[in-house]
């Protein structure tokens, strides 16, 4: 007997249903409130109703849930302290898009060793999400696999569609149905139009292939996501975090009828993936912030220990605790300093806006 089916498939492993995993690791009522409230706060920052600065900060990728939680325990009190000026959302990224192969994140390969125990990855991810929420921190994720959001998105307050998938119809459709604001990165080559187009498509209701709560293949119909917005992350031609880049992107977004406030990623091609440079970029953004009204938020890649390390068969058992195995990150000490610098700049911008409003009211 010959067959034309699945000639290159070696295995199908059935996943637990999203509903059963959520039942195993449920969100408490307090955590549901936190997710709902923080999603609304992000939306209000994007619309300008909330004049604080959104800061999406945390490891490039989670490879060690204990170290990520350790990081969250340090971030949570700082986030609370700076909450008048910043809305801090922690990067808890489980899915990594790779340029030319490599480890694809904790959900895909929680053992970091090519064993790809995805069911364990989903459980580990969900447990960490609930632990981070328990500390009072809202969560940011990149969504990469079209079905994985069903397992984790209820815990997420800000989502990204990454540079490598911003042109993908599958990801744009997915964003149209996600319950939180979604940032579309500009393309790896620096192309802004792909992010604008992503926002346009995501704003509209879509019909596409997906999975329902029971994990059953389904046709998904969505309302559209009005909070889809642009994230500037630099490109092959260089960085794009300067005030003129932000103003240009904002004008382009406004013309296209999408959210015109912008998030800037201080990492990736805006800092040439150099964590030392990332702190300089964040400093420049802070300096310009009072005169950059269209800037809604900043993304930082940060972990406990500065820099990055290679994940290989040789290093797997002796990895440095709290250091990134993907992109280089700011260390905790520098992160704390940068967050305070951004809070001060955001405070100055808020005071300036209030002064202008008072002056207008007095006229
Ligand atoms: O943020 C992470 C990385 O920039 C992205 O996943 C690509 O990484 P790579 O170029 O090392 O594959
Ligand atoms: C992969 C990421 O970024 P980008 O899509 O901008 O490369 C990321 O933020 O982890």
Automatic annotation (TrEMBL):
Enzyme Commission numbers on file: 2.5.1.54
Q: Which GO terms describe its molecular function?
A: 3-deoxy-7-phosphoheptulonate synthase activity
Q: Which reaction does it catalyse?
A: D-erythrose 4-phosphate + phosphoenolpyruvate + H2O = 7-phospho-2-dehydro-3-deoxy-D-arabino-heptonate + phosphate
> Which SUPFAM superfamilies does this chain map to?
Aldolase
> InterPro entries per the record?
Aldolase_TIM, DAHP1/KDSA, DAHP_synth_1
Q: Which GO terms describe its cellular component?
A: cytoplasm
Q: What pathway does the annotation place this protein in?
A: Metabolic intermediate biosynthesis; chorismate biosynthesis; chorismate from D-erythrose 4-phosphate and phosphoenolpyruvate: step 1/7
**Where does the record place the DAHP synthetase I/KDSA domain?**
44-338
Query: Which GO BP terms sit in this record?
Result: amino acid biosynthetic process; aromatic amino acid family biosynthetic process; chorismate biosynthetic process
Which keywords does UniProt give here? Amino-acid biosynthesis, Aromatic amino acid biosynthesis, Transferase
User: Which Gene3D superfamilies does this chain map to?
Assistant: Aldolase class I (3.20.20.70)
Protein family according to the UniProt entry: Belongs to the class-I DAHP synthase family.
Q: What does this protein do?
A: Stereospecific condensation of phosphoenolpyruvate (PEP) and D-erythrose-4-phosphate (E4P) giving rise to 3-deoxy-D-arabino-heptulosonate-7-phosphate (DAHP).
What protein does this entry describe?
Phospho-2-dehydro-3-deoxyheptonate aldolase
